[in-house]
Design brief:
elongated, 13 helices
């Protein structure tokens, strides 16, 4: 059973800003009650989360949480993984700028309305006919000065508050999305989850998700992980990452490299063995290294052009072994004769 990312208190706080008749509001109530059969369709939450840059971040939070408990079709799983990767990768700037502009516009409108009210009030009171010592004159213009000062302060405070709120909201959305990615993520999500290691508040959510993704890898995933993504796992062996904190990651990463690693990962494992890998993991690492070396040789041989061993065929005919064939790559391949075709 999946563990909720949002507690009931946090969901209740989100629902205060939503209409009761919205489908996402009902999904929030279902999350609070633990009644996941009433969460709505997967397409609903995917469409909401897809608008994570310009849409309501509160609705996106509930949708990211709901996706964790829904049963998705294979096509929906692929779409969910793509969207969740985008959310985890997203940066604060678009939403922060959007919130900043919104606050400035609202503050400017309020300032203009207040100034108009004060202007008509002072004109109605006949200030023009009053002396400078008039009590009404002083009170009116004192209010004007205080209002101008207050709105000048708001022009400074509102943007700062907007930046803080937007940053916190988007960070929370990225955290929930990273945890949901642990449910639906495949090989394509490895790279983005590894890239969050430098953000401690985000790594607390994406780290366990990365572990779940690595545990789900199987032989069918070989070739589906880009070389750069597999090589990115090398960070868990680097002294800069502090090996004392990655002891529990060592077997998981080695197992993953044994499944999806390619020839480019040979140097990574060699460096790990020679530069501080704990003795209890060196035997495992050596086994993984042997697998990677064989793959490196296979990848190199599969790109070589081979000449036929002999026969009536033209000596300038070059053959390439097929990686998917059952023929050992070290054997020379002969072209088939016309009677064999």
């Amino acid at each position: 059973m999946e563990t909720p990312s949002l507690d009931n208190k946090e969901i209740a706080r989100i629902l205060r800003f939503m209409y009761r008749h919205d489908s996402i509001y009902k999904a929030g109530e279902a999350l609070m009650a633990g009644d996941y059969a009433r969460l709505g369709s997967g397409n609903l939450h995917l469409s909401i989360l897809e608008r994570h840059v310009t849409g309501d971040v509160r609705a996106c939070l509930l949708s990211a949480e709901a996706l964790k408990f829904l049963s998705l079709t294979p096509d929906q799983r692929i779409t969910a993984e793509d969207i969740l990767i985008e959310v985890v990768e997203s940066r604060y700037y678009p939403r922060m700028i959007q919130g900043l502009v919104r606050h400035l516009v609202i503050t400017a409108c309020l300032a203009a309305i207040l100034m108009l009210i004060l202007l008509f009030t002072t004109m109605g009171a006949g200030i023009s006919g009053l002396s400078l010592q008039s009590y009404s004159y002083l009170v009116s213009w004192t209010i004007v000065v205080m209002a101008v000062g207050a709105f000048t302060f708001l022009f400074i405070a509102a943007p700062l508050w907007s930046l803080i709120v937007s940053r916190r909201a988007l960070l929370r959305l990225r955290q929930v999305s990273a945890e949901t990615l642990g449910r639906w993520g495949g090989p394509a999500s490895i790279d983005v989850l590894v890239s969050t290691r430098a953000i401690a508040s985000l790594w607390a959510s994406s780290g366990p998700s990365l572990r779940r993704v690595l545990q789900r890898l199987g032989p069918h995933d070989y070739g589906r992980v880009e070389s750069a993504s597999a090589s990115g796992l090398a960070v868990f062996f680097s002294p800069q990452f502090n090996l004392d904190k990655t002891e529990t990651w060592t077997p998981a990463v080695l197992d993953a490299l044994a499944i999806v690693g390619d020839g480019d990962c040979v140097e990574i494992v060699e460096n790990a063995i020679n530069n501080g890998l704990r003795p209890e993991w060196r035997a495992h690492a050596a086994d993984v290294l042997a697998i990677l070396v064989e793959r490196q040789r296979f990848e190199r041989d599969s790109t070589q052009l081979l000449r036929p061993a002999g026969g009536k065929e033209a000596v300038n005919l070059l053959l390439r072994p097929l990686p998917a064939s059952n023929e050992p790559v070290q054997n020379l391949l002969r072209p088939a004769g016309e009677d064999e075709i």
